Queue: 2 jobs
Job 1
Amino acid sequence: MKMDWTPQEEGLREILALLRESQSPDTATQRAVQLKLEELNNFPDFNNYLMFVLTKLTSEDEPTRSLSGLILKNNVKTHYNSLQPTVTNYIKTECLQAVGDPSPLIRATVGILITTVASKGDLASWPELLPALCNMLDSTDYNVCEGAFGALQKICEDSAEALDTDTTNRPLEILIPKFLQFFNHSSSKIRSYAIGCVNQFIAQRSQALMFHIDSFLQNLFHVATDDDSEVRKNVCRALVMLLEVRMDRLINQIDNIIEYMLVRTQDPDESVALEACEFWLSLAEQPICKSVLGNHLTRLIPVLVKGMKYSEIDIILLKGDVEEDDNVPDKEEDIKPRFHKSKTHTMKATQIGAENGISDKGKCLKTNGKHFFFQINHFNLEDDEDFEDGDDDGSLSDWNLRKCSAAALDVLANVFREDLLPILIPILKETLFHREWDVKESGILALGAIAEGCMSGMISHLSELIPYLIGCLNDKKALVRAITCWTLSRYSHWVVNQPHDSYLKPLMTELLKRILDSNKRVQEAACSAFATLEEEACTELVPYLGFILETLVFAFSKYQHKNLLILYDAIGTLADSVGSHLNKPEYINLLMPPLIHKWNVLKDEDKDLFPLLECLSSVATALQLGFLPYCEPVYCRCVSLVQHTLYLHVAYMQTPDQYEPPDKDFMIVALDLLSGLAEGLNGHIEKLVENSSIMHLLHMSMQDTMPEVRQSSFALLGDLTKACFQHVRPHISNFLPILGQNLNPENISVCNNATWAIGEISIKLGADTRTFVPLFLNQLIDIINRPDTPKTLLENTAITIGRLGFVCPHDVAPMLQQFVRQWCISLRNIRDNEEKDSAFRGMCQMIQVNPGGVVTDFIFFCDAVASWMNPQDDLKEVFVKILHTFKSQVGDENWRRFSEQFPPQLKERLSSLYGI
């Protein structure tokens, strides 16, 4: 298609002047250029000028031409649908002509532009693109071939699924065999492109690739030892993906592949070694791992431990030689956003999932159904649902060989368990006591990585190792002190279960010193490790509370910005762990002034409020009435944060072009802190609730589209119901239908809190709950009978059904047969408490109303009754009455046959507790 568009001289001059100005370091100039570029988008042929500069104006320097192309790419991305057809056609034609530009920079820019146009307008609207690029691959001009491959690789990355559908006539059937021909090309760049293109289709099990799988493998093996590191990297990447997708094709060669990957994991090019190291992580997920890898462990494990040593570049980036930096202020860009965890109500309405004092999370790997998180400087391998991409220290926080090697050792320890130790113990003996600090550091990391998988085999060594590690907390190298904090935290479960004087006290003393270390990285590692220790030790820490609080409070005056956020977590976790033991005047006087000081200096829009509010929520719950002197300003500010966020949300919904969507985390954290206040202060919150608009705000937030907002709203509703039901009651007819609409187990946490709140409301509302029972009873029965409902939700659902049966037995009892078995199974394992008490009273009332509903599952009821350690006297009498009534109604002979099915322990408990 011939294009007759030509630029005007004056227009060209203006655009070139703009392009030059946009490279100015002055921000005011850049802003003016930005506005001018936006204005120029109103002229239809502005984009033609940009295209002309990129592809035709060879008199200009390459950076200016490339910049023109990148501005054009952004315009295409933003305004594609409003571009005139003549403009899009001009761009498409010029792109195809410039694919083989002599300049690598211009070729790359054209490639980016092509893939942007292709992905915005979909491939079907540019039918000549793929055939044209395909033909160019056979060009004798290297630049044309390389440019076409560069563009194709970007298209394969961006449009992998579109290339494999009928709507585009399955171009892959032509492309895949074509790419395979180029695995043997004389240029390493082309070989690398060819493998890279095919690799895009492995994970989606593309039909065309599966058809040519044998040819693909043959070609891969042919270039496996290529001189070019990019080619080797792509080979490793392919084999890692094939392991998950086509193990059947690799199995015959698996020994050779393992040998190959062993060599590549030690590749002189670290990026190749990293790709190869991923192989061990993938292999550990395969059922055949144990049988195929066992014989290679003696060679693999030393390679992995060696890979865990800091590289020289790591140490430079980590400022590993800087020992004292606690007076150096943090750069704002080093502080990553944190994601708040909404409150989830479990049996005791406690908060789940404190973040262990950890804010940085790096690459996430799914292994054995778990997510492993690696903290940038001292690994933190922990279960969690959400993760942030770390880029804490420039390139260091990217996934690197050290992290991948440690991750691989961790997952292999979970596969091979104690069988790993005969190989690993000699290596640990050599590395842990090594003269060179970086080798010793890698040994300590390895010891931490195997903690979960090899724990039972390590127990016999821990009485020696733990004191040695506690000693390493005083190492003169900061990076050794930091990793030691993490490794000790991985063994804290063992430590807590030993005599305190031998291990817990010395560990706690030294960790608290490290919390006040002069190195920020060590402070962070120690704070994280201490939070883990707090979770393990819980009330075991009570005798040492004064000492712990003095240290944590002193850290307030010492810490720079980033570590302050982790300190809040450590204090919040401490409050969660020791609970009301914190409620002593001397502890309150230590802890509250610095927290309230921070609370007063932070502005409402400052995201540092998140961790502070989370911390205060835990503290308020723990201090209970001890928090009273501080509660009013805290309460009022939380209400105002919720109100302001809802206001911004409404404004954004009404006029999205004038308002940004608000950050709802402010509202979520405020709702959670209000929950903490309601739970801690109980009835004492009544006056504050009365004088605020919280009920109206709650009604709005319960209907929010964001699940986390609803989750926290329902938690607060339940807590306010318990604390001051007189203020909740007038709004019940608005609230209960919303709770009923949120009983969807697809969203576990929302469903959990809605279920819990229904139970709390029904207990307070009593018989008046009747009118609302149809809103949720069937859904609750569905949830309790679903095969995959998580344990916490099952327990909450059973308690709420029991409570509904307690207040409205005649409305719930007719359905008894549909849920009684699963109800009994769900509640047999929970400890005696008031929630279990009310649920069982409800069950007994329902059985009295509809005894026939329990007959076929009576053995399950017997078992659930036997799970009580110490029921209240009147409840015990009801149990006796039901058991004996059943026995007399079926007759002695039937009862004897029935009770023969009981396990001996159940028979014995029923006899001793209830005389039956």
Note: Residues 628-654 form the longest helix (27 residues).
Job 2
Amino acid sequence: MGSAHLAALLLCAFVFATGTTADNQNGTGIPARPAEVRIGALFTFDSVIGKAVRPAIELAVAHVNADPSILRGTKLSVLMQDTNCSGFVGTIEALQLLAKDVVAVLGPQSSAVAHVICHAVNELHVPLISFAATDPTLSSLEYPYFVRATQSDYYQMGAIASIISQYQWKQVIAIYVDDDYGRGGVMALGDALAKRKCKIAYKAKLPPGAANTTVEDILMQVNEMESRVYVIHVNPDSGLNVFRAAKSLGMMNSGYVWIATDWLSAVIDSSVYGNPDMMEFTQGVLVLRQHVPDSDIQKALLSKWNNLTRNGNAYSMRAYDSVWLVAHAVEQFLSEGNAISFSADPNLVAAKGSSLKLDSLRIFNNGNQLLEKVWSVNFSGVSGPVHFTVDRSLIYPAYDILNIGGTGLRTIGYWSNFSGLSVVAPENLNSSALNSSTNNVQLHSVIWPGQISEKPRGWEFSYHGKPMRIGVPLRTSYKEFVMQNDGPDGVKGFAVDVFKAAISLLPYPVSCNFVLFGDGLKNPSYSDLVRKVSENYFDAAIGDIAIVTNRTRLVDFTQPYIESGLIIVAPAKEVESNAWAFLKPFTFQMWCVLGVIFLFVGVVVWVLEHRTNTEFRGPPRQQIMTVCWFSFSTMFFAHRENTVSALGRFVLLIWLFVVLIINSSYTASLTSLLTVQELTSGIQGLDSLISSSSAIGYQVGSFSRNYLVDELNIPESRLVPLNSPSDYARALEQGSGNGGVAAIIDELPYVEIFLSKYCKFKTVGQVFTKSGWGFAFPRDSPLAEDLSTAILTLSENGNLQRIHDEWLSGTECSADNNGDASNSLSLSSFWGLFLICGLACLLALVIFFLRIFCQYSRYSSEVEVQFPEPQIVNRPARLTTIKSLISFVDKKEEEVKNALKKRPNGSQHPSIGDSQHPSMGNTATEEQSTLPT
């Protein structure tokens, strides 16, 4: 662009040199305070902006010259040139101004002309102060003498991106004039949208000065596209033609969104009495306007600025402040003793014999110093604060957000780069917290095209009666998910029914045409199917499509409608029951512990009942048989002996509860072992399968092959492609060494169907990848988001499960029969019960023996008083005490109680020959043997 601009500049210089003559300047003794300082102004007089800025510039010059505090003794004059809406003419007029020794140039209003003139002012060191050129690329370091006295489209496009993000639209179509102004603005819009994860779906460029037929043709192309959000960035003088064409094409009805940059507000504000036709075909449009805060300076000028207020706009105020900007800069420049002088440019000296008089263009000697004063100016103008930031932009960029409705404009909010969207004016937010209650509501309500208040969806199907092309895999196996049929749709299956049910929940109609993908000989490649969607060959793809990382880089998926993941299927053999199957419910250790604890509880009950229960007394052999019988008969609750002591009943109650649990567990385990056949396999899990050298099968077309190779690093030589469940079964039966496979890795839904038909295989381990199946759409397709919501609704209302049961229920074999662990019950399952029973027995024994020791102590004292111990006995004292204790324990409880009731001075005492002692009898020998020693 730079070379083209220079060529245009040289051509214009030639025309200028041959058709005009330069004004002569007195080159001797320029005073420090010249009598007059000339500035230039470039704009199109008969344009929307030109009609507004011309009286503003003239009024500003008059006010500057009338103000004694500025440019003391120096008159400011302005030379205006009409660019006539032409880049070529504008360049010529600019060169004419520069040849008249102006210290600064106001304008131009066209960004395209500004790009060319910037090269001239750079060479001649003349500041170019534009009040209307908004192209962001003009802020480039390539143009150091360009001063933007208005807001850059960089900020305006940031405001538009905030609006689009606020209403949650993802794509827009940019309609712009194809010149520097339009291209620069749209480039800034794309960058601003990208920051908010949105994008420009299509750029519709209009030729400068396009005819109405051309505009209509372009809009018809735009209307064929999906997005219904349009950002229009064109010139004020011809931009209304776009809305006229849109109105005639029916594009101003409900469902459409139009956002216009500040060119439209400039047109509306410049209308003297308003144009009813213009308001009619712009109803519902959102418009931006450069924000101009209310100020005392502005109010003071209103009475004098009658013509400007009737025809003025934000650009007219910027033009007024631009004059004052130059005046303040020149005042500082002259106050520091700088002289205004010009000198010949050695680069423009005409060659000998040349007809080009380029020497009339002279360099402003101190132009760089004046430029520095311009950047440092700080004052309050009618458009607000006039002060530049370090990046050469006006401070506090802000915009009003307007909505056209009825016969006027309505402010629905504001935007600034400081506070973002707000319903409060930016100047009121600059000094307050952004999280205050005044900033909770971001925008007021909007009346959209078609006179609707509900936010448009922002997109429509671009097919206009032509149905969407939906790619469907032509499967040759596992047809429960999707299959070809002779119905009107041509396909059916679980995935198809889910898609149709989700489509029916959308608030708008969707017409679909299902197109089969595949050769019908083997399952197609699902990665190729997804790639067809990304290439727009298909508008979407449905079926059993796994959502994996590589595919999400190409397309957008809906919410998964079924869970999936890879799992291992391996061969198994049945284990038949044998004659000793009744021992399998318990482990060997469990059987041993049961035998011991049964005897232990029998002994405890015998000890607790022996003194009080005659059924637990008798000869030693009989008592041993009683203990054994009682112990094992409790297993069947068939014990005949009654317990009479409280401790014995306590222990028996706890023990019978334990027996009840053991019997129930044994019965349940034995039933399971005899009715369910156990499956075993040599494959232990994924690690053992990877470390082996056995062949592994996978389904043709599935992503499992890439996963095994890329993620698990399994050599391709070990992988065997399989197509159908019968191929699965045959390969597993043959085995890895006989041309088959040792195991198959496939997705869980396929495996569940396979195992429902082939029960002699089993899954090994758990699902080792987590994924799901979804429907594929092109990137950023809004239909994917709406269908995801519909799938969630199907899941919540139960219809998704109903469709699943209709197609995938009725499995005969369990896919969850994993592992080779024995079903035998071990000690770990009952140690808590045994612990409780053991503690109860120990507690009962402790209480029992404490009671025995107390009775024995009292009983021994009574006997020693009645029968003193003979001194002739030489037996050891400890031995006789133990024997006496054992003998006492063997006594009946009733006999001991009767003995303790008698007093030493009573008439009755326990005698040696007392028949109450069970082992003493009536003989002297027995009496003597039972006496305490």
Note: Residues 831-866 form the longest helix (36 residues).
